[in-house]
Amino acid sequence: MGGNPLYTEVLKILDGDMDQYIHDNIDDEISHFQFITLMVSKRASAVNLDKFRTLPGSQATGADKSKKRLPNLLNLNVDTSFWSRYRIDNENPDLDPNFKFPQAVVIKNRTAIPRNDDDLVGPATIAPFDVPDHLKAIAFTAGFHFAFIEVGGTSLYPSLAQRVSRPEVLRILLSIGPTETAHFQSWQDQAGNALALTDVNPMTGSTVTFNDLTTGQPESLQSN
Q: How is the chain split into domains, by residue range?
């Protein structure tokens, strides 16, 4: 399936099927993009996003180093309040949208993929000891970023469904919505398996601390 073998290995800490699920998820998202492109082309000119592909991607071994990207995965600020949003029993995210749900982990100016091969080396203080702690932190950031993106999809398609008039568009939008919910459920469950560690990014100086969310946590942070 391609990609970086060491990064793939550390993703499996979150879930043994993580690498396979990432590729399957991508296939599904591509189908969403193709559907939206098709629907827009029925009413307007065809959509081409190539002009927006301006961001450099990973330069690590296994990456397509020359391909420009749409999203920025190298300097991420991740809102992890989705984690506590459905775990706090005395606050309702639907009835009180202005309540500030706490973050599961503070992720500021972090990368979710190896920037280059320098991110593949370094000390390993927790198992597996053949994977650097820095690379573990990159993979754990990816785990929380996956869920952060997908929680938006859970409301996007129902919202779009209220704005369309063609029956076939409505049918497809209403079928995509539950798929996005399934994506979010899978990603947030896997993110909860991140190991406890603190990492300082040697390239930016940004620090991230992941806690063990599987044991001894308050209800608002306890993983599934």
A: 5-210
